[in-house]
Each structure stands twice: as C-alpha cells, then as structure tokens.
Amino acid sequence: MTDTTPEPIDDAAEQAELSEQKAVRLAKRQRLIDEATSGAGGAYPVTLPITDTIPAVRARFGDLQPDEATGVTVGVAGRVVHLRNTGKLCFASLQSGDGSRIQAMVSLASVGDEQLAAWKELVDLGDHVFVSGEVISSRRGELSIMVAEWTIAAKAILPLPNLHNELNEETRVRSRYLDLIARDQARKNVLDRSKTVASLRQTFTERDFVEVETPMLQVMHGGASARPFVTHSNAFDTELYLRIAPELYLKRAVVGGIDHVYEINRNFRNEGADSTHSPEFAMLEAYEAYGDYGTMADLTQTLIQNAALATSGSHVVTWADGTEFDLGGEWDRISMFESLSAAAGVEITPQTPIEELKALAEREGVEVPHPIHGKYVEELWEHFVKGGLERPTFVMDFPVDTSPLVRAHRSIAGAVEKWDLYVRGFELATGYSELVDPVVQRERFIEQAKLAAQGDVEAMRLDEEFLRALEFGMPPSGGMGMGIDRLLMALTGLGIRETILFPLVK
C-alpha cells in the first residue's frame, strides 16, 4: 500500500516540486519524440516486440539458483516501480498489471555507452519500459533480465507515489488507478469481483436460467421502495427515471414464458451513501416460475457458497484483515416476529395494536419515519435483533404493508412470504414468494399511492403497464435480489467503496 501525490497538495513547496518534476518529464517526452525514427521509438510507440509476460517468465524460471544464466532471451514490458542507477550497471523493477515483478539489469557491457546514458537520462519511476535480453538470476538470487535492448513503452508525465507508504482511503477511491498500481489488495479485489460474477452466471446456467437485460431508463420507477434519480429525454420530451430495480420488467419476462430469468446490472437510488450503501450499485435479480421464497433461499445460499469457492477455494473466506468467516453449512432461518418478540421481551405479532408498537419504539428511542404498522415492526426488529446476527441468517416473514410486491403468507395472517438475508450484520439479499394476483397487486399499489400522498418519497407508484402484464397471467413464482457489491463485502470483509472499482465520490 502506498501514499499518493494526486491528493490535494496544500504545501506550496510540494506543489512547486511536483510542477518541476512534471516539467522535467515533459522535456524528456519531447526529446523522445524528436529523436524517434520514422515508425519506431518515441514516447508512446504503437507496437513492441514482446515475446513473454512477466508472470510467464517468473513461472518458467522462478527456481533459478543465484548467479545462474539460462541462455534464453525474452522480450517483456512493465511499469518501472523501482530504479537504481549506479555507474556502469543500472537496476529497475518492472511490474506487470497483476503485480508480478522482474528485475531489469542494464549494463555498459550489454547495451553500450549511448544506450546506458539514455537509460539514465530518460527513464523515470512510473514509465512503461520494454526490455529484451537473457533471463538470469542475480548474485543475490533475484530473477532478472540482462538487458540487451530497451525502449520506452509509455512515458509517465506525473511521478508515482512513494510505494513504501500507505494510501489513505480517500486517495484509494479517488485515484483507483494508483491504488491498483500500488496495492496487491486492490488488484485482488478486482479479480475477486470478476470471479464472483462468473461464478454467479455459471450457477444460473447450470440451473437453466436465462440472462436478460431490462431498461435502465424507465417512464415509471418501481420494483423497490427507494427515491429515484430523475432525468429528461429530449427525444421524447418526457421525464424519465434511472431504474431503482429491474423487478417489474423481469416479471413481465416470466409472464411471457421465460420461466427462469435473471439479470446482473446497475441500479440507481438517490439516497444516502455510507459503508454499506452506494447511489450506483450492481444488482442481481432472479425469478423462477413455480418456485417460492423457500426455493429462492436455497438458490441464494448456493449462489453465495459457490462464489466463496470461486474466490477462496473454500466456504471459509479470509477477509482483508485476516479474519476467517464461515459461509458453509446450512444457514439459519428465523422468524422476524418471533425473534423480535424474544429480544423485546413482549409478544409482537401482525395483529399487535400500532399504539403498543409506538409506545415500545418511544421507550427504546427508535425513530420511525413513516409510522405504519410494518415500519414499526421492522425498525424495532433492527433495534433489537439485527446487531446480533453475525453468521448468515435468513429472516423470514415480513409485515404485509411494507412489502407491496409479495404474496400473502399462506399461514400467518398479516404477514407476507418474504425473507432478508443478513451476513455480518448487514442485509445482503432479499427473496419473495411473488404476488401474481393482479387484483391484489392493484390494491397494494393503491395503498402505496396513499403513502406517497402522505409524503413517503420511497413509496411505489401505480404501474398500469405492469398490472396489464399480470392480467395476462403470471405463474406462481419465487424471486430474489442481491447486491453484487455487498456480496463482495461478505467475501472480503471490506466496505462498499473498496468493492466497487470506481465508486461515486463527491
């Protein structure tokens, strides 16, 4: 981990030094351009005679003994992350994109006076350099290339940060490109995310799910309780919304006969940002005809455990701080109402009078922004129970008035068949037995409209086009949604801004 110069520099002397370094590097860039022959050289050549990658050379020759030569010539390119020029022999560490390094040794005997002098004068930390020469091991046993030819591959105009110091979080997220150069963990985060998404897709493919894409721009936002981003279409002269969820379109696909469907894509919610929330985030949603919230819980557990295997080789994942977290085995399933009752010391059911819930909330200092029965239950549950959930746990059976898209519970009056999955104490995923009755769905939307009229900016709107699709008949179905960024949080132990490659920052 390293500190970086792109942070705001308050000290005038530091700013002047940075400007001076940039000016020197710009002069070197111009010299490289001026001295280039037609079609070759320069500060930014188009092609280079690369024969191998640094990781491949390390894999092939990593077991050389000290002061051993191979007789094998390779051509590799990398970024200069360490540079030491001493007399007739210069040393540089070249780093590839995956963080692998190899030493380049530039000697007078191998390249001659002119090229040795040019190396000393033109090569800086941060430059991309191509070198060609014999693979050897130095007297200290370091895998090296004894350079016979070299050329600048890309001239860096700004200096690299000090690679021996630690990056602060703001620099890491604002200058992720430097973070990737400097920190192994940053590169690992990118690879883990790629492996995770590939694993999710593989699990769905094995279960005959079809991946689709649904609109990002929507004439009506829906599918979740959230405040949307609003924009305007000049072509249609109408107000549009960045989607908060793909749910209502994916259900249209199920109506159309795509019985196993999923999407991995971006959602946008115009709300707060903290260690577990980002205004722009990647979301997985999936729907299975003739499934229910139980089958979707089973699927979700499999998806996450397979992702753990893909990134860690085990259901026990190791977080960035070294902590081990076990995602294996069968996960607990607890009732929201029963767990709340046990923690609060008083029985709470869907029929508990709202006055009693209000009194309990006031006594505990729990604020409820929109005082309906279900909101009181959920806020009280978070107050009493949420903080104690460390291992993966499905919290089952939610209040009906906070879940307008969910089927009524088959045996608990006033509840719906919904679960939220909590891992490490934060919500990772949610799943439903989907509401497919268009008459009841209309009634639920009307109740949401009343809440919106009372000032609830997250309430859903009545979506006539979606209701029309349901009226053509949607089979009984289960659905689930999971944040990809939060899944990476569970796998790595990092905050959400570390799991997103380029997070939104102010």
UniProtKB/TrEMBL annotation:
Pfam families: tRNA-synt_2, tRNA_anti-codon. One of its GO terms (cellular component) is cytosol. GO terms for biological process: lysyl-tRNA aminoacylation. Its cofactor is Mg(2+). It is found in: Cytoplasm. Binds 3 Mg(2+) ions per subunit. This is Lysine--tRNA ligase. The gene is lysS.
